[in-house]
Amino acid sequence: QVQFRAASAMASKPALSRLRKELKVISADPPPHIHVSCDESNILSWSFLLEGPEDTPYEGGWYWGRLRFPKDYPFAPPSILMVTASGRFETNTRLCLSMSDFHPESWQPTWSVATVLKGLLSFMCEDTPTTGAIDPPPSFMERRRLASLSLDWNRSQTEFMKAFPEVDRIVAEARERRAKHDGTEAPASHCFGGVVRWEAGQAVRVSGLRQRADLNGREGLVQESDDKTLAAGRVCVRVGEETLAVRSENLEVTGTDREVTCPAPE
């Protein structure tokens, strides 16, 4: 149970009551792709975690950000900052949105934290410029690369792990939901001699390596692989600054596309 030790001294009674209620609601039934955490010592300071939506450059990415609420919330809007690099927004920079503190004149007290974060996620998937956005955004592949690095980077941050100590459970549940969803769709496949064909740019996680156990659990991006490498059941993957040939069974797809096993031609 969250304890608001210093909140009463910092927030107005309406803000305290409203934010307690919203935290309870959104924690019990989080909107798709959205998770929140509240600083136990200050209810005016929240962290949020956005899961990159499917079929976008951000799929497979996990983006940490902060909400800072004014003392008179919900009668004034929060400030919004992103911490994890995405290629869409500058980091640690206040974002100018119709629902942020840049535009108090357009703020509606009936809007909630869920409203704000849903709007932010939708805006993230556009290329509309604004203060705090990167204009123009980097290439699709660069944003895919940042998505593949985001989770490991978040985990390396002490403040993030304090806000989301259950991140592994959150990620595992999200991947399980995605796997069930993917199982209902007919994927597009590219086959070579009856072996798996991978697409450059797929985000993957490495596991089960013996010689390079230090890479297990790391995420990377599939690179262009020649037919000889593919026929040997291996895939070229860039992990950090290294590119190596990894067996298909040691890769888990975390990005938009996925591997498909095709029957060998008769």
Automatic annotation (TrEMBL):
Q: Which Pfam families match?
A: UQ_con (PF00179)
Name it.
UBC core domain-containing protein
Species in which this protein is naturally found: Noctiluca scintillans
Signal peptide span: none
The record ties this protein, via SMART domains, to: UBCc (SM00212)
The chain positions of domain UBC core read: 14-166
Superkingdom per UniProt: Eukaryota
